[in-house]
Amino acid sequence: MIELDAARRVAASIGVADHRIAKIDLRIFGGSALTGDFAVPKGRTADEMSHDIPITYVPARNTIFLAFALAGRRCWDSSDIFIGVNALDYSGYPDCRRSSFGAFEKMANLATKAGVEGRQALRIHTPLIALTKAEIIRKGIELGWITG
User: Fold this and answer.
1) C or N terminus of the chain, fewer CB within 10 Å?
2) What is the CATH number of domain 2-142?
3) What is the value of pTM for the model shown?
């Protein structure tokens, strides 16, 4: 898969010591054009994307990804989770908003042993959140993570 190959290249280029891939199949929940048998809408305007949550929204996808990362961070003794979402081209997905990441961060610090004991405060980083998809591609090319 292209995305997994790209993740491996990025992890290697920044020196990730223990890159792991979790197989998470959200098709069991359905309810989305990305996980079920619905047509993916094409050509929506920015105005259309700002009003309704589209059929391509996968319920709680980023929250599920964050929960897996939260569980793994204990094993890796990490206080940082990075997620590659963006808010500019997010199509109205509720779990791509800064407020949802702030709420998850707060919950994680209340619901983990490290947080309760005050040993380690979780920080969720969203380095792409203010970039458009075009800017993300340009940055990936600049960093050598995306090749022609």
Assistant:
1) C
2) 3.40.50.620
3) 0.79
